[in-house]
Amino acid sequence: MKKLIIDCDNTFGVTDCDLDDGLAIIYAAGTGRCQLLGVTTTFGNNVLEVVHPNTVEFMKNIGLGDIPVRKGHEDNPEENEAARFLLETADRYPGEVSVLAVGSLTNLYHAWRLDSKFFEKIQGLSLMGGVTEPLIICGKQLDELNFSCNSAAALHVLSHGQNIRIATGNLCLDALFTKERFDRLAQSKSPFLRWLQAQGQYWFARENEVFGHNGIYKWDVYAAAALLHPEFFHENTVSISPDAQSMKTGMLLGQGQPKAATLPILKDSRAYIEHVYTAYANFASRR
Questions:
Q1: CA–CA separation, 51 vs 54, rounded Å?
Q2: DSSP state letter for 255
Q3: Strand 2-8 vs strand 34-41: parallel, antiparallel, or unpaired?
Q4: Residue range 24-57, pLDDT digits in tens
Q5: What 3-state class would DSSP assign to 123?
Q6: pLDDT in tens, 210-245
Q7: How many domains does the chain have?
Q8: Strands, DSSP E only, in the chain?
Q9: Are 70 and 5 within 8 A, CB to CB?
Q10: What is the SS3 assignment for 3-63?
């Protein structure tokens, strides 16, 4: 069972903001394959002043209020509680902690600033972000998710991190979670799953309004699954070469020093999607 910290910009339930960080937390806890040691908050989907209290409340709402939630900082490592928590936990369990990072990579960068051996002390990283080509949904190009929020931090993490998996925006497009399938949760006997279905409606509505499709991409869940259930993916080790300029748009292929990273590719999107719903059901049954 992996010891896990989730570093996120969770805005589940915040008007007009993405919900997949929250879904990734539920998914990870529902797999039964991790010991969730803590959640650290960063910016991305919204500012820290929104993300952090929202995450504290979310964890209480889903019955995980006993899990530590530590607030990040935008620019000062010394004042970054999340970075200190990451570092202290890595010291407590040397070589055992994995980090799922699905927002700005600022907290990881700050942990490295506090201790340049930080990445050597953890088991590995699973990141959501970056692109290898333009990110197009229904003919519309999206800006990159996460790495470009703090491009300098992202470049340092990608340059110094070890055992890195990256769920790029492009790869996540292989699994569209349809509204029809999500709405089946409303027929569940579980009050939690019915709550989850009701809570998710705003994001389906927004995606339909913006892109015209009847589903959502669960970006952060992809990164969680690649870490906790790699059997659903081809490992696909490639060479990335980010530089300061390319990171401003999240592009992993720049003019920088080549670095090996795993970009996991789904084997079977239908099997993966049903696996995610099974994890939700498992989480609900344990509440």
A1: 5
A2: S
A3: parallel
A4: 999 999 999 999 999 999 999 999 999 999 999 9
A5: coil
A6: 888 899 999 999 999 999 999 999 999 999 999 999
A7: 1
A8: 2-8, 34-41, 69-71, 97-101, 124-128, 135-137, 140-142, 164-167, 176-178, 215-217, 233-234, 237-240, 259-262, 265-266
A9: no
A10: EEEEEECCCCCCCCCCCHHHHHHHHHHHHCCEEEEEEEECCCCCCHHHHHHHHHHHHHHCC
pLDDT at residue 22, rounded to an integer: 97
Asked whether residue 232 is assigned to any structural domain, the reply reads yes
Q: How far is CA 176 from the centre of its chain?
A: 16
User: If you ran DSSP here, which 8-state letter would residue 130 be given?
Assistant: -
Q: Which of 63, 64, 62, 81 is closest to 73 using CA atoms?
A: 81
Instruction: List the CATH number of the domain containing 63.
Output: 3.90.245.10
pLDDT tens digit sequence for 122-151: 999 999 999 999 999 888 898 998 999 999
Would 205 be classed as within a structural domain? no
Residue 286 tokens, joined: 């344990």
